[in-house]
Amino acid sequence: MMIPVRCWTCGKVVANKWEPYKQLIHEQHLSETAALDRLKVLRYCCRRMLLSHVDQIDELIDSQVNRQKHQQSRATN
C-alpha cells in the first residue's frame, strides 16, 4: 500500500522520504539506520513509519495483471 503522508504520532511529513530511503537501501546498500540518518529522519516515531511500511502496490498490480491474463486465456478456450 502507499506510505502515509504524515507520521501518525507527530504529524511530520514522511512520504517524501520513502523513495530516497528505498534507493539508499537497495542501490547504495546502506543499513536502515544509516539510510534514515542520512535522510535526517531522527524522531523514532517517524523512523517507525518508514521501517514498518510494507510496499505492496507492485504485488497488487502483478496480481491484477495475472488475473486478467487468466481470464483472457479462459475466454479464448
Describe the structure.
The structure is a single chain. The protein has 77 residues and is mainly alpha-helical. The protein has a single domain (15-76), classed as Orthogonal Bundle (Arc Repressor Mutant, subunit A). The protein is 57% helix and 0% strand. It has four helices and no strands. The chain has helices at 18-26, 32-38, 44-51, 57-76. The two termini are 35 Å apart. The model has no long low-confidence stretch (mean pLDDT 88).
Give a short overview:
This protein is mainly α and 77 residues long.
Topology:
Layout: H1 18-26, H2 32-38, H3 44-51, H4 57-76
What is the class in the CATH system? Mainly Alpha
- Into which percentage range does the β-strand content fall? under 5%
Rg computed from alpha carbons, rounded to a whole number of angstroms? 17 Å
**Gap between N and C termini, in Å?**
35 Å
Architecture in CATH? Answer: Orthogonal Bundle
Shape: elongated
Classified in CATH, the superfamily is Homeodomain-like
Mean pLDDT: 88
Order of helices and strands: HHHH
User: What class, by secondary structure content?
Assistant: mainly alpha
Poorly predicted ranges (pLDDT <50, ≥5 residues)? none
* Total DSSP E strands: 0
The helix count comes to 4
Residues in helices, as a percent range: 55-70%
Q: In CATH terms, what is the fold-level topology? A: Arc Repressor Mutant, subunit A
The total number of structural domains is 1
Instruction: State the major sheet.
Output: none
